[in-house]
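User: If you would, consider this record:
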Amino acid sequence: MKRIRIFIAMLLMIFSLCGCQQTNGNSESDTAISSEPHITGNKAENIQSVSSAEQTSQSSESFSEQESPAQSKILIAYFTWAENVETGSDVDATASASVTLPGNVGQMAMWIQDEIGGDLFSIQVKEPYSADYNECLDRAADEKAEKARPVLKNTVENFSDYDIIFIGYPNWWYTAPMAVFSFLDEHDFSGKRVVLFCSHGTGGLASSVKDITAALPDSTIESNVIGVSRDDISISHDTVKSWLKAIGF
């Protein structure tokens, strides 16, 4: 009987030891998990950066699905009033800032080229616009109403070689100048990635992005479009650089 009690006591001790080892094993596992870097104040910042990357990928079919900027041939086409005015015409005070070379959009185009390289192409009409602000506005209004396509001086002969096309323009009557649509009509944008940039007065981007997107159904239009007020052009170099970085350049 005494031997039975001793045997039972030994069994109880064995079971007790096994239970302790199992508990210690779980404790070590918990310690290993909790010893991973703990994100506190930076957690929201990290989540935001991931979300931004996902948004860029979804909105512009990021470069992971196309060629990267370093591998791509880039064209920076732009329309600026300063390069589309009558030679020797008088400039009124209202128009002076916009028609002084390189012009608002021309300046933005040059900054973009400085940052990412690429080839510049100035969209120019055969029949120049008046340097008088009101006269230019009147003609622009008539062209928009008629959905005119002003004749351009030249085209990009090797357009098919380019993968990414930047298109710059001012806001004329709440859309892009009709000369920009002439440029879109004269070139095959199928499969191109298109990036828009704009200079504007009080109208912002207005319907320009929607109208250009409708004109290029077979292209990928970058959803992050920069619009800079004409009054802020001179102080917007860093803004343009930050925008380029945000869209993957």
